[in-house]
Amino acid sequence: MRKGEPVFRLCFRLLAAFPLLFLLTGGAQVEDRQRPDGFARKFVEAVNSKDPERRTEIVHPLSRACMTTQTQPYYDWIFTRQARYVIPSTYTARATPLPQGAPPTPDGHAVYPVRPTHQLQIDFTSGPQSSASVIVLVVFDGARWREVLPCPHGDVIGRAKALRAEEEERDQKAGALVAQMPPPLRGELLDLLKAGRRVDAIRRYADASGEDLTTARSVIDLLSPRGGLR
Q1: Lower CB density within 10 Å: C or N end of the chain?
Q2: How far apart are CA 90 and CA 126, in angstroms?
């Protein structure tokens, strides 16, 4: 405060500086760098939204820069599998610091554009016999926590394309099997699902149809009211 400057004028100058501060911080609230588990809420909301753009927004900009026409099948494979989940609000999240050095990637055919510092594990259930965990690698970028995905190349991209093609073919087959399923069997399977006996439903369908367990699981996932836990 300058000598003799009225108090109201000083307050005006301080208030005038707030818009500049807002612009410098990108208009975003700075997150707690000591709480990587706080990122879990953003991840859960993005996955449950089933919106690819919203899912991509929580990824670190350097990882997003790796999303090209050539590499997109790899990321689509990751996001599509996650989108099959419906994560309930009762999930739990646990963050663990990673040791120095980049974590391993599939067969070494991918690199992290920025080193993740923490592993975030999100655990959830959907019935007494249905549970799943999702592992997310994150880093604090100075203002917020971001997910770090590796930049793939070579065989990883090819395998991702093949796996996604296999999954799409299996899903199409499962859809056809559900459509032609006899009503008595459908009712029996739905009763098992309502009772939280998903594993029993998978085995029952496999026994009744003669399909393998992988196909049976896809069929039961389509019947499940909360979506698949694969």
Answers
A1: N
A2: 10
